[in-house]
């Protein structure tokens, strides 16, 4: 088990990494953040700037680490960038964790499972057919081979992000702020089927829990706490909290197919459209059994997401918005 004297090194300072670093620091832990720039992340947080694809740099940046967190994404949301950059990032962190005997906590995703109608569990076989999904399948295979060499790893797989600070997501902070000003949000596939969303503060808390837990979590993958709700219902609840009428514009499968050649984002989403054109169900039972009490209710998540979009309004919340 890790202690307050241990050094926790967080790679990535985006929508998850920055909040994770601040959360760990608030618990009294020593925290170092590794990112592309030297921009500060928070009080008491050491920042090291460099290219994490460089294995020697990553090894130096993790000197003295007890836990290393992989919260990085490639430079672009494209199959080409994922295939080129993700293995370099992963190999550098695996080598660093092995060199220092550190636990490697990986922020993963659900792409590796591919299309399936049944609720996904951590035991669901990988059936990915898309290029980005296959990148994730190969990553899991690499973690297992490295485990045979002594790697101590644990993975967290969230649903689609939403909540304060969320970027580049269907329910991002920008989308919620636009909703607050009366603009109609956009959704794809079907808006009337349940979808597994993960509230960003829950993802941060889950990573921190895995990084500080006892050794029994190692060698396992966990699904982060999820909230299964239709996109229409989620936008409707956010609209109610913001005092506006939410009327999502829906781009169905045919619309996605027609627009994909002209809209790069939709072109890249085609391989994971199965997440949006049918129920997308995920079981978080393993995580909740291991870490009871972690996980925000839908009502509280909606309330605080709306409060973050319009901080000048109270929206019925007296609690601070989680980092």
Overview of this structure, please?
With 323 residues, the protein is of the alpha/beta class. It has two domains: 7-158 and 199-225, 3-Layer(aba) Sandwich (Rossmann fold), CATH 3.40.50; 161-196 and 228-282 and 295-309, UDP-galactose 4-epimerase, domain 1 (Alpha-Beta Complex). 37% of the residues lie in helices and 17% in strands. It contains eleven helices and twelve strands. It has helices at residues 17-26, 55-61, 79-100, 131-148, 173-180, 200-212, 231-242, 253-259, 264-269, 285-290, 298-309, and strands at residues 7-11, 30-35, 46-49, 65-70, 103-107, 152-157, 160-162, 186-188, 194-199, 220-223, 227-230, 249-251. The strands form three sheets. Strands 3-2-1-4-5-6-10 form a seven-stranded parallel beta sheet, sandwiched between helices. Helix 1 links the parallel strand 1 and strand 2 (30-35). Helix 7 (231-242) crosses helix 11 (298-309). It is globular and about 50 Å long.
């Amino acid at each position: 088990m890790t202690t307050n004297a241990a050094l926790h090194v967080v790679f990535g300072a985006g929508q998850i990494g920055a909040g994770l670093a601040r959360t760990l620091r608030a618990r009294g832990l020593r925290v170092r953040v590794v990112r592309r720039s030297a921009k500060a992340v928070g009080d008491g947080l050491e920042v090291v700037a460099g290219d994490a694809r460089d294995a020697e740099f990553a090894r130096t940046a993790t000197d003295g680490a007890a836990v290393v967190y992989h919260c990085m994404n490639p430079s672009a949301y494209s199959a080409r960038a994922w295939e080129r950059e993700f293995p370099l990032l992963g190999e550098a962190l695996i080598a660093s964790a092995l060199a220092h005997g550190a636990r490697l906590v990986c922020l993963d995703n659900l792409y590796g499972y591919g299309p399936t109608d049944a609720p996904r569990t951590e035991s669901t076989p990988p059936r990915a057919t898309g290029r980005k999904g296959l990148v994730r399948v190969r990553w899991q295979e690499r973690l297992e081979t490295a485990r045979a060499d002594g790697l101590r790893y644990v993975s967290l797989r969230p649903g689609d992000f939403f909540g304060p600070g969320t970027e580049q997501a269907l329910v991002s902070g920008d989308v919620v702020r636009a909703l607050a000003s009366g603009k109609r949000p956009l959704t794809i596939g079907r808006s009337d089927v349940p979808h597994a969303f993960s509230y960003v503060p829950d993802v941060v808390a889950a990573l921190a829990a895995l990084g500080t837990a006892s050794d029994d979590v190692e060698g396992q993958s966990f699904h982060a706490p999820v909230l299964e709700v239709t996109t229409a219902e989620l936008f409707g609840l956010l609209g109610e909290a913001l005092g506006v009428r939410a009327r999502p514009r829906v781009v169905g499968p045919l619309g996605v197919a027609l627009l994909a050649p002209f809209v790069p984002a939709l072109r890249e989403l085609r391989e994971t459209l199965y997440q949006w054109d049918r129920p997308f169900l995920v079981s978080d039972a393993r995580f909740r059994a291991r870490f009871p009490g972690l996980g925000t209710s839908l009502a509280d998540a909606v309330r605080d997401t709306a409060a973050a979009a319009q901080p000048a309004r109270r929206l019925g919340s007296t609690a601070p918005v989680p980092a």
